[in-house]
């Protein structure tokens, strides 16, 4: 199978199991390198996009199983969109360096693992994927993806970058409520997201013009109303960005960035928990549980 054929399968096949088809280790040689920009993925009626808004539960309500299931459903939806959009990038940027394309394939496989982890755990809480309307926030950015650098700025540095924060916050809160199984899932995803952002940084940093720094270049690659606010979570964990290879100047600017939406979502919930800046790691889960 050609890599392009695999990417088309992920994008156009309608069922969830099709989206979870594992990538091969070796690919047939490509002949046609013409860019292909598919405008929307194939989706069965069970997993169709919806404009209906469903709020993610507040952090202090994650003691309830129903709210845990709803929260994980939100996260699973993000994983599915990421699978599709990294497949989209393979088709849209066929002349991207081989190392970048290989990174996208690895990311797809890891996102598939994340999706299965979320689905299995939400099933424990009585929620099936597709029970709740699925937004398409990532797909709404399609018109921004003019180059692989702009794609990396939005998908890797912004959306996946924000998940470095969110995975830490939710790992801590699930642990606070004694749900170590779900907390560990969040930490597994955190560790993979570090790799995903790092892959985006590598695609991004090679093209920074000599007259710009990384932050200035990043700002040229995103289009309002999309802003750097999308690149961080309720709490910001600077150490996670250093782990992903971002430089201090970029991290400082992102840390200080604010707009009119800053702090409007779940900030009071975060304050109630008094979540600290120390990172949780899988091998320290048990010891940190007693310190929250």
Automatic annotation (TrEMBL):
Residues spanning the membrane: none
InterPro entries: DUF455, Ferritin-like_SF, UCP012318
CDD domains for this protein: Ferritin_like (cd00657)
Any Pfam family the entry gives: DUF455
UniProt-listed PANTHER family: 3-OXOACYL-[ACYL-CARRIER-PROTEIN] SYNTHASE-LIKE PROTEIN, SI:CH73-314G15.3
Protein name: DUF455 family protein
